[in-house]
Design a protein that fits this description.
CATH architecture of the largest domain: Alpha-Beta Barrel
Bound molecules: N-(iminomethyl)-L-glutamic acid, zinc ion
Largest sheet: 8 strands, mixed
Structural class: alpha/beta
Number of domains: 2
Strand content: 15-25%
GO biological process, one term: L-histidine catabolic process to glutamate and formate
Radius of gyration: 21 Å
Family: Belongs to the metallo-dependent hydrolases superfamily. HutI family.
Helix content: 25-40%
Enzyme class: hydrolase
Distance between the termini: 19 Å
EC number: 3.5.2.7
Function: Catalyzes the hydrolytic cleavage of the carbon-nitrogen bond in imidazolone-5-propanoate to yield N-formimidoyl-L-glutamate. It is the third step in the universal histidine degradation pathway.
Number of strands: 16
Shape: globular
Length: about 425
């Protein structure tokens, strides 16, 4: 089926080629004013200025008049923990009362709290909950997503999470990539036996994950009190033997060398980056690794935002993602993430949109499929409400400025 979209006020993120944007390039967001867009079988087939629309347009079987809407590539959310069993608002209240993130984790809260809830839930119920979250995110403009395990922390429960992600992958209308995060924290039973848990990850979880093709990436929470740089290296090297690529949680609370090791391991991305030394910024800028910034986690944990300006100005490639999870970012709303990055991290609107689309696609190895208006890519698109300009999107934070979301050439809901 072919659909012609006409009278688009601005077609945003038009790119003939896929290039990961770094440094100054991040502010370059190519648009076509007063545009048309042709979609064939759910895939972008052509685009251009309305004035160049040929006679052929008259014979189109299906047309949609965008009447002055802006059309953007849907958000590419490259870091989420979307599969979880329950919310953790009791910890939210504890934190308001002054209890720290680390103190909550130390007394069995945090990730372990989510793991206990997940262990008690069936695969089917987990899938039902995750599916309804995913539907909400798509209606908020997310057109591709990465989902991690990491609330299982046992062979059985990690595999249960990954099988839920696998089912989402098979049935979701948007591309889903899967990340194995068995090394999210040490389960209680292995609190004093790190080697034992790492052995379980390497010898019991990874072979099944590889056998059933349950993950595209491997992640480790490299942090004081969680996994050390050496432990991260051991786990990544084992996972890489099965073809999983590293995408790693580093430099959230402390700078302990995780970022440098991730670069050495040729990670696809290093995620969080709230705590960056000047040397960390320089090392990232000189590497090919994408720095994925998660401003809503910093916001929710009341931490200083990631130093986006310094990271971009040093020449690094950055992506933006939601980190949707029940502990540190109970929102997967990428519109809010884009606003926060402009308001809290002084990213330009063009930089934020690029970081949340094309660079996010690169951070999931999905750049051939999504992230820009490019012939051959999926027509996963955001149609805005009537807005005066593109910067109005991050400026008017909290308003729902999305009129419709298109997934694979069809309007979603
Ligand atoms: N930092 C590690 N993991 C999650 C938080 C997990 C949780 O608190 O449940 C994050 O990315 O912020
Ligand atoms: Zn995370």
């Amino acid at each position: 089926m072919t659909l012609l979209v006409t009278n688009i006020k601005q077609l945003v993120g038009v790119r003939e080629e896929n290039v990961l944007l770094r440094g100054k390039e991040l502010a370059q967001l190519p648009v076509i004013e007063d545009a048309y867009l042709l979609i064939n079988d759910g895939v972008i087939a052509a685009y251009g200025e309305m004035k160049h629309l040929g006679e052929w347009a008259n014979s189109m079987e299906q047309t949609f008049d965008a009447r002055g809407q802006f059309v953007l590539p849907a958000w590419c959310d490259s870091h989420t923990h979307l599969v979880f069993a329950g919310s953790r608002e009791e910890e939210f209240v504890d934190k308001i009362k002054g209890v720290s993130y680390e103190a909550i984790a130390a007394k069995g809260g945090g990730i372990l709290n989510s793991a206990a809830k997940l262990a008690a839930m069936s695969e089917l119920e987990l899938l039902r909950l995750a599916w309804s979250r995913l539907e909400e995110l798509i209606s908020l403009g997310t057109g591709a997503i990465e989902i991690k395990s990491g609330y299982g922390l046992s062979v059985e429960a990690e595999l249960k999470m990954l099988r839920v992600i696998q089912q989402l992958k098979e049935t979701s209308p948007i591309p889903v990539v899967s990340t194995f995060l068995g090394a999210h924290t040490y389960p209680l039973a292995y609190r004093d036996d790190h080697k034992g848990y790492i052995d379980a990850i390497i010898n019991e979880m990874l072979p099944v994950i590889a056998d059933e093709n349950l993950a595209d990436f491997v992640d480790v929470f490299c942090e004081k009190g969680f996994f050390s740089v050496e432990e991260m290296e051991e786990i990544c090297k084992a996972a890489m033997q099965y073809g999983l690529k590293p995408k790693l949680h580093v430099n959230q609370l402390h700078s302990i060398g995780g970022l440098q090791k991730a670069i050495e391991l040729n990670a696809v991305s290093v995620d969080h980056l709230e705590t960056m030394t000047n040397a960390d910024i320089a090392d990232l800028a000189q590497s090919n690794v994408i720095g994925t910034l998660l401003p809503s986690a910093a916001f929710f944990l009341r931490m200083p935002y990631q130093p986006a300006r310094a990271i971009i100005d040093a020449g690094a490639a950055v992506a933006l993602a939601s980190d949707f999870n029940p502990g540190s970012s109970p929102s997967g709303n990428m519109n809010l993430v884009v606003s926060m990055s402009c308001i809290g991290m002084k990213m330009l609107p063009e930089e934020a949109i690029n970081a949340a689309t094309i660079n996010g696609a690169f951070a999931m190895n999905l750049e051939q499929e999504v992230g820009s208006i490019t012939v051959g890519k999926r027509a996963n698109l955001i149609f805005t409400r009537s807005i005066p300009s593109l910067p109005y999107l991050p400026y008017a934070f909290g308003s729902n400025l999305i009129d419709r979301v298109m997934i694979g050439g069809e309007f979603f809901r």
